[in-house]
Amino acid sequence: MKTPFPPFEPHGPNDEARGPRLREIPLRLIVPNMITVLAICAGLTGIRLAFENRYELAVVAVLVAAFLDGIDGRVARLMKATSKFGAQMDSLADIVNFGVAPALVIYVFLLDQARSLGWIAALIYAIAAGLRLARFNVMAERENKASWQSEYFVGVPAPAGAMLVLLPVYLGFLGLTPSKTFAYWGAGYTVLIAFLLVSRLPVWSGKSESSRIRRDLVLPIMLGLVVYVALLMSYTWHVMVVTVVAYLLSLPFGARSWTRKYGTYTINGPADPDVDDSNDDIGRHI
Length: 286
What we know:
Layout: H1 14-17, H2 27-51, H3 55-78, H4 84-109, H5 115-140, E1 152-154, H6 158-165, H7 167-173, H8 180-198, E2 202-204, H9 218-234, H10 236-262, H11 281-285
Antiparallel strand pairs: 1-2
Helix pairs in contact: 2-3, 2-4, 3-4, 4-5, 4-6, 5-8, 6-8, 7-10, 9-10
């Protein structure tokens, strides 16, 4: 009696019909993606905690998400586990952790008192974060990168934007009453941060190989970092307010450094003559 199906041949013609065989994936390739997934979980948990009026835990969850999202790429490079899948996962995590989560946390805590204006401000920030991340991804994929891309960001980076936009929440934790006047001020501040995200403002990144520290300053800087972390653990919201103000005050200095080098106040195009973006219409207009 004939069998209805031909016997399976491991390396014969029936092998292709079964589709690609599953392969074992090294554990080191999964670790960065797991960190990214944990970052998304932290960001979404921050949104839930905000709706439950547990605002301090919500902000901590968003900041933890930003931290995890900031280290997953570095872990991938250290473990030589970079992949296109990981890059796509990281982009999806960024829009959740740096765009949606901070916008909803600040809306639930404060901006809802400004009614429609507060919601519009939250929408503007979330969309601006998405545009900022899209522009970053496009610039990162260029084959010929301008020399300044390792030294300057175009606009405030999304992780810093998430930290900056939560300033009204930090102030609320320090005793500032979330009144309607404060809500309108917070809405204007949120729109301002959104503008900084999509602007052409040159922001010093500190990642350039030319950025060096004198040998005699290494130990004092490390000690200062320890003091900063200790203060952050003890006086979290005071230190966060100081950090936000210090970051905002540093922006003009980065722009002035750019102006001295390239003679313009904003990054209007590639400052490197070797980079051709004649076909990059979206990049030039954004």
